[in-house]
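Regression test case RT-17, inverse folding.

Input:
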């Protein structure tokens, strides 16, 4: 419904050519901006409402007692949520605000865009079940292991304190009573976060719209194709700054594979585009300091590169 409204506004009301890059970029910008801001507000409201039923300290204690299992469950939850890298940020912020450890929240943030139902369906159609299952397993492994590593690095000091209440022992846990009070609590929490984040969302999506519509796929194929043994890191590094939907990423990975690219190289590019992007980094900057973003992107990138080489080694088995 939202897409139909945005299409009408862009192509009928403004009379922009549906095939023009500026028309497609504006359509992309409006649709993703509205979608992410609405998602941000609704999801934070819902999570705030649900969080009011569970004592914050008990939730933290339950997760801390299970160590790596917390990362596994966060990664599993990320795998079943249909979000891109930018759309996962509302959940990430809400989890931090609930006092969930940083490493566990990173497991969700990494896995959520890497694996979702429509990406899995597309991969089944293009690559078959063996590659799809291996991709799901590798995506969750990256999320769990990277989350554990980041959690053990004690990086909470690099979070912006005005966005999330990070394990603050001095903070008073609000305990609203009654359904109405809990709903109001969730809405107020969403208003507070959206008010601080919406400009970053617009800026990030605007950059994504430019990259999505003005970076030619042929350039990606040309650069990665000349890299030889370094094709995996090159394809990953090319994919990191890019931004696009899973519906667009999977066909590109298929084309790369069909043109003779090793399987791992094609999938590493797809993973990098899905899990990491400049728009995501811009939105995360409002919640965390630059050093933490660099560490997060760096470790996740290394995980994707390792997975790409692993898929290249296993290509004969999987194909």
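Golden output:
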């Amino acid at each position: 419904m939202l897409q139909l409204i945005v299409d009408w506004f862009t192509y009928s009301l403004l009379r922009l050519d549906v095939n023009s890059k500026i028309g497609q970029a504006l359509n992309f910008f409006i649709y993703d901006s509205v979608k992410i801001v609405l998602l941000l507000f609704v999801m934070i409201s819902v999570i705030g409402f649900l969080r009011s039923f569970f004592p914050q300290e008990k939730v933290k204690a339950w997760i801390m007692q299970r160590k790596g299992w917390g990362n596994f469950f966060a990664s599993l939850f990320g795998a079943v949520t249909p979000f891109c890298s930018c759309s996962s940020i509302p959940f990430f912020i809400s989890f931090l605000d609930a006092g969930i450890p940083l490493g566990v929240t990173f497991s969700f943030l990494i896995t959520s865009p890497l694996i979702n139902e429509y990406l899995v369906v597309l991969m089944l159609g293009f690559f078959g079940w063996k590659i799809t299952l291996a991709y799901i397993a590798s995506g969750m492994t990256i999320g769990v292991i990277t989350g554990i590593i980041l959690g053990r690095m004690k990086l909470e000091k690099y979070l912006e304190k005005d966005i999330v209440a990070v394990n603050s022992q001095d903070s008073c846990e609000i305990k609203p009573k009654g359904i109405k009070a809990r709903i109001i609590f969730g809405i107020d929490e969403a208003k507070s976060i959206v008010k601080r984040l919406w400009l970053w969302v617009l800026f990030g999506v605007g950059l994504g719209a430019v990259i999505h519509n003005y970076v030619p796929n042929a350039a990606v194929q040309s650069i990665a194709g000349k890299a030889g043994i370094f094709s995996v890191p090159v394809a990953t590094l090319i994919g990191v700054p890019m931004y696009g939907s899973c519906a667009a990423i999977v066909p590109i990975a298929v084309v790369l594979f069909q043109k003779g690219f090793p399987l791992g190289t094609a999938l590493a590019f797809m993973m990098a585009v899905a899990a990491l992007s400049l728009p995501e980094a811009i939105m995360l900057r409002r919640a965390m300091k630059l050093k933490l973003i660099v560490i997060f992107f760096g470790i996740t990138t290394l995980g994707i590169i390792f997975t790409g080489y692993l898929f290249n080694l296993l290509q004969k088995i999987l194909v």
